[in-house]
Specification:
It is a single chain. The chain has 552 residues and is α/β, with parallel strands linked by helices. The protein has 18 helices and nine strands. It has a five-stranded parallel sheet with strand order 6-7-8-3-9, with helices on both faces. Helix 6 packs antiparallel against helix 9 and helix 9 packs antiparallel against helix 10. The longest helix is centred in the middle third of the chain and has 53 residues. The chain starts with 13 loop residues before the first helix and ends in a 5-residue tail after the last strand. It binds adenosine-5'-diphosphate (ADP) and magnesium ion. The site of magnesium ion has 4 residues, from helix 11.
Length: 552
């Protein structure tokens, strides 16, 4: 599949996607053209058959009626085919946008990703795509249909009399200039709609995630009130967008009727004077109607497409962030396996002007076992994220051998570093999936990792063993079991550097000791273990214990 060129293609709009699938789109447009042409032909046939009635010619009337019915059957048959092709290309384009969003998310930096909430991203994959389908794709094809109808109607009217074309041009100018007045307003309403909706989805996600907390503290009312507020946040801007669109549509309808009456009057005069067929009063009226309706629909479709713009801009914003904040061209692609160690020299880091770590220096030698201790909030987790390359905006120097971490691509670092985060995350899948993350490992490798993380006995007591489903974020496991699944995951992936952020805090002493002993006895492993506190006895087992004082 074709990829977005992240570096050069800074603004994404609907044209990009329509162009990417131009072959598929061309076939839809081809069918639309044929359909609209046939509809105009049907109107011309109707004129002929009515002329048969006026001329009291039964044979002519029946013949043209038969041809007319055949053409209508053809129109309905082709409508089915056109729908198939249209829905297919819409499916392809929607999937591509989702794929582009996920690729762009992977290119975001750690901090830039966490600046937005999961709910907002979720809303992009769901709500926003629905809106794009309604406002952009459907309106685009409707607009093409209307434009082709208008073009064919003009040609057909011209075959009747030139003055009808002049009249059509006058009405076209009026109908096309009117909606320009509403462009900005519709675009603004579209932007408000997308912002409010993603905020609401975020809030709903929070409320559902925090469901237990609210119930335990008897805050059912708050749950109801906030879900209703979120619901209002989704519905209100949508309502405003819809009714403003409705009013604009109604206004355009009035203009349309005036134009239509103008056409009918002209056909009437021409027909009474015997310049055109009398039968033109029926089919000709339809042609004028189609022309005006086509113009009016086109203008509404153009308005809809303007209100889809903010949804595409949201995706473009990510690309902007990605190129500016993160992927530095100078970043080194390949990092060799660490030979000596990690050196931190006078490292400071602050989150939004608030110091989290100040002037910290340390040396972690290859194969060494290090403990980091200190009170809560002193910057232990931050320090691990600095080594992981997640926070490249630090001052001072952090080197892996001779390479400065801020100049390395984090993905390259992650090939040699495993990390057990403080708040373990588990997928709502089997234990096996959670430890392998879909990669192939031998049974022996898995078993050794399970033993080293003291999880094998727990598994024996689970009827489904490794196939046990852990529940949403590991809800079916105990806190200690969750931590051990995370430890197994890290050990199985067998990186030479292991960062553990209070990874045994929820474990009983016996299991915690067993795991720590296992980790400490691996000669090749460089271990940096963050702990709230360690006993004097435990401290002795580490190569060195660093104490963080905090940046206060
Ligand atoms: P520790 O792991 O030692 O408990 P952390 O490294 O998690 O401490 O946090 C250090 C300080 O940085 C704390 O004061 C914390 O409030 C702050 N902090 C941590 N993460 C963020 C963040 N994403 N944004 C802003 N401040 C943060
Ligand atoms: Mg922490």
């Amino acid at each position: 599949m074709e990829q977005i060129n992240i570096k050069t293609n800074k603004s994404i709009n609907m044209i990009n996607y329509l162009k990417r699938y131009w072959k598929e789109n061309t076939s839809v447009i081809f069918f639309l053209v044929i359909l609209c042409g046939l509809q105009v032909v049907a109107n011309m046939l109707m004129m002929q058959s009515f002329q048969g009635i006026i001329d009291r010619n039964m044979h002519q009337f029946m013949f043209w009626m038969l041809v007319l019915v055949t053409v209508w059957f053809l129109i309905y048959g082709l409508t089915g085919v056109e729908t198939f092709f249209r829905c297919r290309v819409i499916r392809i384009m929607n999937n591509t946008i989702r794929q582009d969003i996920s690729e762009i998310l992977l290119k975001k930096g750690y901090r830039s990703f966490h600046e937005q909430s999961v709910g907002e991203y979720l809303s992009q994959f769901t709500n926003d795509i629905n809106q794009i389908e309604n406002l952009a794709w459907n309106s685009f094809y409707d607009c093409i249909r209307s434009a082709v109808t208008v073009a064919f109607s003009i040609v057909a009217l011209l075959t009747l009399h030139w003055s009808l074309l002049v009249a059509s041009i006058v009405t076209t100018v009026i109908m096309l200039s009117a909606p320009k007045l509403f462009h900005k307003k519709m675009e603004y309403l579209g932007t408000v709609c997308t912002q409010k909706q993603s905020e609401a989805v975020s809030r709903l996600k929070e409320l559902l995630t925090g469901y237990d907390v609210l119930r335990f503290f008897n805050q059912d009312q708050l749950f109801i009130r906030d879900t209703q507020q979120a619901s209002d946040q989704i519905e209100n801007p949508k309502f405003r967008l819809a009714y403003v669109k409705g009013f604009v549509g109604a206004g355009m309808g009035c203009v349309n009727i005036i134009c239509q009456m103008f056409h009918v009057a002209l056909i009437g005069i021409l027909s009474v004077r015997g310049i055109i067929l009398q039968g033109a009063l029926t089919g000709g009226g339809n042609l004028c109607g189609n022309l005006s309706a086509g113009l009016s629909n086109m203008t509404q479709d153009v308005l809809s497409m303007s209100s889809a713009k903010p949804y595409f801009e949201k995706i473009s914003v990510h690309i902007g962030e990605t190129t500016e904040n993160y992927i530095e061209p100078k970043a080194e692609m390949q990092i060799e396996i660490m030979q000596n160690g990690i050196t931190m020299n006078n490292v400071s880091f602050c989150y939004n002007k608030k110091d989290a770590l100040k002037g910290f220096s340390a040396y972690f030698e290859k194969g060494g076992k290090y403990a980091l201790i200190g009170p809560s909030g002193c910057g232990k987790s931050t320090l691990l994220k600095l080594i992981l390359g997640c926070l490249p905006e630090y001052s001072g120097s952090i080197r892996l051998d001779n390479r400065e971490i801020r100049n390395c691509r984090p993905e390259q670092l992650w090939h040699q570093i495993s990390y057990i985060e403080q708040d373990v995350f588990l997928f709502n899948d089997t234990i096996l999936y959670n430890i392998t993350l879909g990669k192939e490992f031998t049974k022996e490798q898995i078993w050794t990792a399970l033993q080293d993380s003291a999880l094998e006995n727990d598994l024996l007591s689970m009827p489904d063993g490794l196939d046990t489903i852990v529940g949403e974020n590991g809800g079916n496991l105990s806190g200690g079991q969750k931590q051990r699944v995370a430890i197994t995951r890290a050990l199985l992936h067998n990186r030479s550097i292991l960062l553990v952020d209070e990874g045994t805090s929820a474990l009983d002493q016996e299991n915690a000791d067993r795991i720590e002993n296992n980790l400490l006895s691996k000669p090749e492993l460089t271990l940096i273990l963050v702990s709230h506190h360690l006993s004097e006895e435990q401290k002795k087992r580490f190569t060195k214990v660093y104490t963080l004082e905090g940046a206060f």
